[in-house]
Every structure is written in structure tokens, then in C-alpha cells.
Amino acid sequence: MSVSPHPDGDRDRAAERGKADPAAERGAGWSREELLDELTPGELVLRGFSVAPFLALGIIGAIGCVASVTVVIFGAGANVDAVWTRMSGRSLGGALAVLLEAIVFTVIPIGLVALAIAATNEGLKRRQRAWFWPLVIAVAVMMAVAVAVIQLVHRSWLGGTTTGLPDWVVLEIFAAFTAAVAVVRRRRQPRDSR
Hints:
Blueprint: H1 9-20, H2 22-29, H3 32-38, H4 41-73, H5 83-87, H6 92-124, H7 132-153, H8 167-188
């Protein structure tokens, strides 16, 4: 194997390694449709289940965006005024505080949507970065612990039943499902993926 002393020598070595790794070669030149055609039905189902929590997070974020614009900014809700109505008659500091609150309540759901899109895109790839699935597992476990603590301390916060089950139970099931599929995807991922 000859390696050129040229500054692009690292690129030459990477190209040689890419030729030795058929999965890297497939991932580099093939389209997403061709990669999906290669997957077995079981792999497709697992891949779909593993990104389902991210899609759910994106839907929640999209609903939050709509709610933020309609309720926080335009005041379309019970006992809520539009942001400019709440700002009028206040001092400069009070008006800025109301404006900052409206901005924060709008940026948070937008951030959730962006995070969901990025996580879904990463989860659909053939190989994820080494830190991705451990991070998903850690976030799911932290969510489960946070829901359990909130349920013990403030029962009224998560006391509703939107699906026939208490909301805290639904959140715990969601966290457990997310962690379980992340563990399965992590175990199926090749050891050398980075």
C-alpha cells in the first residue's frame, strides 16, 4: 500500500479503509431508498420503533409551537391576553419580562421540533455515532426518574388521564419503551461504528 506524503495522505488512507469496508462504501454512494431496500422487514420495524419516540417528541413540539403562537402571543385562550396587551401599561422592565416569557415559551417547542428532527435523522442512519444510543438511554432513564419524583412530590401535576391511564403511567411507559428500543439498537450496531 503506498501512501503519498501529500497533505491529502490521510484522505488516501481513509479511502483505502473505505474500500475495505463494504458498509462504508454502500453508505457513501448509495441513496437512502437503496439502503432501505437492503433492510429486512425486521430491521425496518426495529428502525421505525427506535425513532418513534423522536417522532412523538416532534409532534409534541409542533403542538407546542401552535399553542405558543395562539395562546401566549395572540391570547386565544381562557384568561389569557395577547402579548402586546400584557405589555401595555407596564414599566420597561415589566414589558421586557412579558416579551421574554413569550419568546421562551415559543423557542422551547421550536427547539423540541429541531431536536426531534436531528434525532430521527441520526436514528434512521445505518450507523449512529457511538454516543447516540447511550445518550438516548440516559435521557429516557432521567425522564423516568423525573416523572417518578414529580408523581411522589406533586401528585396533582400528573394526575390527569388522557388515555384512560394516569398521565404519569403513560410517561413511564414511554420512557421504558424508548430505553428498550435504544438498548436493542445499540446492541445490533457494529462495535467499530463511530
